[in-house]
Design a protein that fits this description.
Keywords: Cytoplasm, Hydrolase. The protein is an alpha/beta fold and about 300 residues long. About 30% of the residues lie in helices and about 20% in strands. The model is unreliable at about 1-45 and about 45-75 (pLDDT under 50).
Amino acid sequence: MGLSSACPVFSAWLVYKQHYLWRPPVSSVPQLHFPRCKFDPGRPLISFSKGITNKFEVFCSQVEAKESLSDEACELVNGTELTIGEGDESISANLFQAVKNNNSTGILLLSDIYGFEDSSTKDFAYRVACNGYNVLVPDLFHGDPWTKDRPMSHIEQWIAKQNRQRVAKDIFASAKWMMNEFAAVGISKKLGVIGFCFGGGQVVDILSQDEDTCFGAGVSFYGTRIESSVASNIKVPLLLIAGDSDPLSPINVLEDIQKRNKESKMVVFRARGHGFAHRPQTPEEDEDAEEAFEIMRNWLHDGLLVKD
């Protein structure tokens, strides 16, 4: 197991691993294929039935899944491909929506450098939605994510093109679109925000700018290029998850965030490197990824549902 109570960083955060039945095994998570959504801007995309079940409905065709998957698994989540805004400032996004157990709560999922269409990001969004959430994954890179066939010598040049102000603007635009969709059906709730790697760094940045307006809780998985000094501006619970063998997300930076912000908690997995929680490569990493997912799930539940 990756967690250890021997390290001081765990002194304020005790984790009890539980078994849970809602999450399908990794091998059975659908590879989702999104229809292009053509919706009326005057009609909300998000709609809730008025009955007791509060079942979630969407005005687009359902996601198609591979034939090898059971009908029951396919019914858990709907997926829609959409565009937020118009013209040069438009943002492509994927929306994953719980069907049977929708809790009327939105989550913004910020991808790593491989972008919103990456299969690992889609799988993770599906799993979050299976827990009842409505998960919006925006394209932070405007159609130009990092690809594995590019030489690593070019990555700094690519990152320099990702203007921080533009990325922040896109994230807030995505969040406000989702909040407006909920408001149109009479629901007023703050969102959660999750991010990996590049997106994990953006979680800290965005929450420090939010002023308790859009978001009610955040989770940063091994965030990169974090300016820890902004953490004192964060007003909502922030969970930091990382591995102690990850040079891209130094533990001392996360410790500094925790010192500056009493709303934050840190969980460090021993012998885990970058990306283990959403891109596990070994059975051991997969086990720790399961545990990290449950920690995140409980954090969002407490921060978004219990406090509601």
